[in-house]
Amino acid sequence: MAGGLSSRLRKNNAVLTDRPDFTLVGVLRIPTIESSPWRAIWQRILIALVVLFVAAIIVYIDRGGYADNQDNELSFLDAFYYTTVSLSTTGYGDIAPISPSARLVNILVITPMRVLFLILLVGTTLSVLTERSRQAFKIQRWRRSVRNHTVVVGYGTKGRTAVDAMLGDGVAAGDIVVVDTDQTILESAANIGLVTVHGSATRSDVLRLTGAQNAKSIIVATNRDDTAVLVTLTARELAPKAKIVAAIREAENVHLLRQSGADSVVVSSETAGRLLGIATTTPSVVEMIEDLLTPEDGFAIAEREVERDEIGGSPRHLADIVLGVVREGRLLRVGSPEVDAVEANDRLLYIRRVSN
């Protein structure tokens, strides 16, 4: 079975990642900061007027080479009129404005209206036609530069809450990539600035599209335990050095996630059950736990390096309230004989005060 799974992963490996970037538009979406459409329209109008004015100056400088029906030397008004008629692609035949007032009306009223029409028609059309090219260019640039980001598989309740926690802890939205099969859910993720990929993360080509092979961490927050196992197995094959955290419903599946390559496994049903049990007798404890798990409220559990002046000291006597020490990848609780003294390469789990 394992051999069949590996062969299937290799078979799907090049389905998306070898396709041209323009074919990925709609699958991979890079967030953009949308500007006001009215601002874009006014910018286009200003550019058009500048072009008209520059063209009029050029014609006026060479006015000796132009003549009207009365063989008079062109004034600047004539030059500006000529450029407006020419640049707006309007050709007059037997009926043409010849008086200064008529020409002035054409300059001040008719031509701006025509330019506005061209801007709205041509500009909007070009915007639609070039949007796909712009998206393809952004996808190409993003795929070349993405490094040390976090991939979140599943943007349901668990995935969304995980993203909120990371954003509250200072992680940039552009450093988070969300994968889901529901396009509507991905729209809500894109609206807050997250990079999104539409597809099933059980396929290695979809995970490659997220840059999982260069990711710092991968969060597996699927709705099914068997899907979480397959996603974890696929992710570990692509990203052997990434930290993989997975959430499952049933505790009996923890060993499957561990064997598949998960570094940490959160059992959502048991965790919720414990909190419910505690809440029946000491609801304030549950409130404090929620506070510690919510970065934007009063306190938060954080991890940091040991400072030079703390080496050799007891974690009990530090300025911060230390809950545990991470040493060589192992979590040691405060009070354990192994952590009587803090060492240089340790990392401290402590309660961080959050200023509102």
TrEMBL record:
Q: InterPro entries in the record, alphabetically? A: K_chnl_dom, NAD(P)-bd_dom_sf, RCK_N, Trk_Ktr_HKT_K-transport
Annotated localization: Cell membrane
**How does the protein's chain sit in the membrane according to the entry?**
Multi-pass membrane protein
Q: Does the keyword Iron apply?
A: no
Q: What is its main location?
A: membrane
Query: By its UniProt entry, which SUPFAM superfamilies does this protein fall under?
Result: NAD(P)-binding Rossmann-fold domains, Voltage-gated potassium channels
Task: Name the Pfam families on file.
Answer: Ion_trans_2 (PF07885), TrkA_N (PF02254)
GO cellular component, alphabetical, reads: plasma membrane
GO terms, biological process: potassium ion transport
Question: Highest taxon of the source?
Answer: Bacteria
Q: Which PROSITE patterns match?
A: RCK_N (PS51201)
Keywords annotated in UniProt: Membrane, Transmembrane, Transmembrane helix
Cite the RCK N-terminal domain residue spans from the record. 147-267
Recorded protein name is Transmembrane cation transporter
